[in-house]
Design a protein that fits this description.
Elements lengths: L1 E6 L2 H12 L6 E9 L9 E8 L3 H14 L8 E2 L2 H23 L4 E7 L2 E7 L1 H9 L2 H11 L7 E2 L3 E6 L2 H23 L3 E3 L4 H11 L5 E6 L6 E6 L17
Parallel strand pairs: 4-7, 6-8
Antiparallel strand pairs: 1-3, 2-3, 5-6, 9-11, 10-11
Length: about 250
């Protein structure tokens, strides 16, 4: 039995096909039916494949019985990574990100991967990518999305979060926003008056929220919706031991 799958990349198509067939990727055979490179080699890209299983029917049945005995035939438990596996993940993600950047610029791009506490920072060292990202931050967000879909990390429990940057632009922006958050927290706690922030980027709002999450003097609250969504910083009243109910909305 064969199936046809269409996705934004070959890797995603293989993952989807394996999931539909209930097999692992090493038990999958496929052929490319059609391929559309899309704008800049990324956006609007489509790959259609025809895929089929190389696993015998008997092994399929055994797999079902083993899954049933565990009480879950379709779900997989997250697998924690060893130190060597983490290093392999870093190298694979760095290589994949470099390939994405090359599609955008048309030339080789240097990419670094640095594990910083709870996040893996993948930095694209290229002026063209940085300029594109400055005009449209969604470019970097798209890179992050594609990296999270890589087969090497699917179904695994990563001990870090992925963070893609271009010439340290986002890291510098984060540091700037954290300093702004601290200054505003000081102002709100002294004046006991809320401040409304008109940051259009949900990423900017989230950074400020996280920066003040442990600040006992203030709390944050999202107001509005869509393009009019704003973030408020409010003083915590004396005697309040915890955040007021429904005060924080993570859909920043």
């Amino acid at each position: 039995m064969s199936i046809q799958v269409e996705e934004k990349s070959l890797q995603l198509a293989l993952v989807k096909a394996a999931g539909k067939l209930g097999i692992t990727q090493d038990q999958l055979k496929y052929k490319i039916v059609s391929k559309n490179s899309g704008f800049l080699g990324i956006f609007g890209k489509k790959v259609a494949i025809e895929a089929w299983s190389t696993r015998s029917r008997s092994s399929n049945n055994q797999g079902v019985r083993r899954g049933a005995s565990r009480g879950s035939a379709s779900s997989q438990e997250p697998v924690e990574l060893t130190k060597s596996e983490i290093q392999k993940v870093q190298q694979e993600l760095k290589k994949f990100c470099s390939g994405l950047a090359k599609h955008v610029t048309g030339s080789d791009v240097r990419v670094t991967a640095d594990l910083q506490e709870d996040k893996l920072v993948i930095n694209i060292e290229d002026e063209t990518i940085a300029a594109f990202a400055k005009k449209n931050p969604r470019l970097i967000e798209s890179f992050e999305h594609l990296l999270r879909k890589q087969p090497i990390i699917l179904g695994k429990e990563l001990p870090f979060r992925l963070f893609v940057d271009a010439n340290r632009m986002r890291q510098d922006r984060e540091a700037e926003l954290i300093n702004v958050a601290k200054d505003l927290s000081e102002k709100v706690s002294q004046n006991l008056r809320p401040i409304v922030l008109n940051y259009r980027s949900s990423y900017d709002r989230k950074v400020i929220h996280m920066a003040l999450d442990q600040d006992e003097r203030v709390y944050t609250k999202s107001i509005g919706s869509g393009a009019n969504r704003k973030l408020m910083i409010l003083p915590r009243r004396e005697g309040e031991e915890s955040e007021p109910e429904n005060s924080t909305n993570m859909s920043l």
